Structures are given as C-alpha cells and as structure tokens.
C-alpha cells in the first residue's frame, strides 16, 4: 500500500483528484445498499461477535450465502442510517429498544460483473442491548449464527464481507475511547478536539507495542482508520469544523510522511520507528497548541476555524485521505 497515491499525484502533477463520483462505472447498474453488523455485547473471553444470516435458496441474489443484515436504500429513506434501521426491523424485528447504534464505516464499492451491478455499500455496527428480544427471521433468511471476524473463512459468505468488517471494527481501546467521547457532551467542540488528539497520541504508543503491526504500512493504515472513527463516530452532532480539523491533522502528518518516505523509496521501505516518531512529533505539536488555546479560553474567546467545505470538496478530501484503504 502506498501513502495516499492520489495526493502524491496531485502535488506533483496538479492533475484532477479522483472522486467517488468519477469512479462510477456507466456500464453497470448502480445500487446503494446498507450493511448492518449486529454485534453481541463484547466479553473479554469471546471478543467481538456479530450475526451472520444465511440467505434463502429462493433469493435472486446470492442464494444460500451467509451475510449480514443488508438491503437497498429506498427513495423514501431519509438517510442510509434510516434505511439500515428499516432493514433491520424488516429482517429481524429488532428496534431501537433492542439495539444501540455503535458507528458507521466508510462506504465502499463492489462490482459484480455476473449481476452487472456496482454496489455502493454503507456499513453500520450495532450492539444488542441486555434483554433484547430474540431475532425473528423473515423469508429472506433461513438461520443465523454469531461469528467472530476471524472465523469468516468457515462460511460460504457473500463477496467482500471482510471489507465491511474492516470498516466497522475497532480495537477495544478505541471502542472505549469512542464511548467516552460520546458521553462527554459537556466539554464542547474544543474539548472534543483536545480529547481526540490525546486518543491519537495514546494510540501511537499502543500501536508501537503491538507485535502484529510490524510494517510502516500496517501502522499507517491503523492510524488512518482511528482518525476516521474519531471524526465520524466520536460524538453525534459534532460540528463540521472539528471533523475538518481532525482531517487537517491527518493531512499534515501525511505530507511529512511523503517527504520522508521518498528518501527511502516509499512507505514500505521507511523504518517503522521513523514513521512513528514523525506521527508522535506532529501530534505533540498539535497538543501543545491546543493547550495554549484552552488556557487562553479562560480569559478570552478562542477563535476557531470557520472554514466550511462544500459537500463535493468534503467528498474529494475524504477520497484523498482514505481512498487507498
């Protein structure tokens, strides 16, 4: 994996930034769907487990395959999240009384040449509440089981399900951090930004200790996803300016990594210790700046960024930052 290759192309040749809309194939039927991972309450002995549903043999798409709760986004749905709630109820009879919304994942596209369809998939994660009702299957599925992400290979599942798992899965540490940030509503946007920087700084230290993260590419991928989840799932109703500032941090780090990785012939050849040092150094600078702002706020109003990106600019930036994941 290269670091944000589209950004490298932009900075060197000033060519157009690839966007989600430009990547749509005109030869395939376009369908937008939601994909919901209904998780059990995590326990240390079991870890994350989510419901897999076996599709009925009479289904026109992927008969007999295992998948998660999935369905099309209809014109009457107010949003992908609203479509996910509707599909969950239709297929399981579960409602908000039974489920806690955990987070959304970054949408992704999957092409099925056999069906001549390109799917835009919006993944979501939910957690069953204590005392939730039993799942009631509709005619679309014949049975369900709870499985761990690492056990997907034991099931004849729909294509690219692993990609959906990767989009909603987070470490236990980030899970706790997201929960804490959602509940700390008194701190305001500035407090949220400060706490997010601390989470990122601590995450770098945690990733340094993980034995299964042995390459610079693996480390950078995990860090990118952490920024994504903090920006998108850290707190409902967060202002767009805070999301923009978190992405500013990521873009600043990426720019420095591009310079250093060029010396080594790419990120894959850049020593992991060097990558981590760069990330820590930049985060430390942001933390020091934020502390000064917080100290100033006791005596004066702190100016915050009032730059608001258009929807198209936001899409282009997210594609630039996360398009290679």
Automatic annotation (TrEMBL):
Q: What is this protein called?
A: Nudix hydrolase domain-containing protein
Q: Which residues form the Nudix hydrolase domain?
A: 52-152
Origin organism is: Rhynchosporium graminicola
Kindly give the InterPro entries that the UniProt entry links to this protein: NUDIX_hydrolase-like_dom_sf, NUDIX_hydrolase_dom
Domain of life per record: Eukaryota
Taxonomic placement: Eukaryota, Fungi, Dikarya, Ascomycota, Pezizomycotina
The record's annotation in SUPFAM superfamilies points to:
Nudix
Question: What Gene3D superfamilies does the entry give?
Answer: Nucleoside Triphosphate Pyrophosphohydrolase
């Amino acid at each position: 994996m290269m670091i944000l290759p589209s950004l490298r192309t932009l900075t060197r040749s000033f060519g157009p930034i690839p966007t989600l809309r430009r990547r749509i194939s005109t030869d395939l039927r376009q369908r937008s769907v939601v994909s919901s991972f209904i998780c059990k309450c995590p326990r240390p002995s079991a870890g994350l487990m989510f419901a897999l549903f076996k599709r009925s043999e009479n289904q026109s798409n992927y008969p007999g395959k295992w998948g998660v709760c999935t369905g099309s986004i209809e014109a009457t749905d107010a949003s992908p999240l609203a479509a996910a709630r509707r599909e969950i109820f239709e297929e399981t009879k579960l409602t908000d009384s039974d489920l806690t919304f955990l987070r959304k994942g970054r949408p992704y596209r999957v092409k099925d040449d056999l069906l001549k369809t390109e799917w835009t998939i919006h993944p979501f994660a939910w957690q069953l509440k204590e005392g939730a009702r039993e799942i009631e299957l509709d005619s679309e599925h014949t049975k369900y089981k709870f499985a761990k992400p690492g056990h997907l290979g034991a099931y004849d599942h729909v294509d690219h399900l692993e990609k959906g798992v990767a989009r909603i899965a987070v470490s236990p540490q980030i899970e706790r951090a997201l929960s804490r940030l959602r509940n700390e509503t008194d701190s305001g946007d500035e407090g949220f930004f400060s706490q997010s920087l601390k989470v990122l700084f601590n995450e770098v230290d945690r990733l340094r200790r993980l034995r299964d993260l042995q390459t610079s590419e693996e480390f950078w991928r995990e860090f990118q996803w952490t920024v994504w989840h903090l920006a998108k799932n850290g707190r409902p109703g967060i202002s767009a300016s805070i999301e923009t500032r978190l992405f500013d941090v990521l873009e600043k780090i990426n720019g420095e990594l591009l310079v250093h990785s060029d010396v080594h012939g790419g990120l894959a050849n850049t020593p992991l210790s060097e990558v981590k040092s760069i990330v820590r150094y930049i985060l430390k600078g942001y933390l020091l700046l934020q502390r000064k702002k917080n100290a100033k706020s006791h005596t004066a109003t702190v100016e915050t960024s009032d730059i608001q990106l258009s929807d198209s600019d936001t899409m282009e930036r997210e594609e630039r930052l996360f398009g290679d994941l």
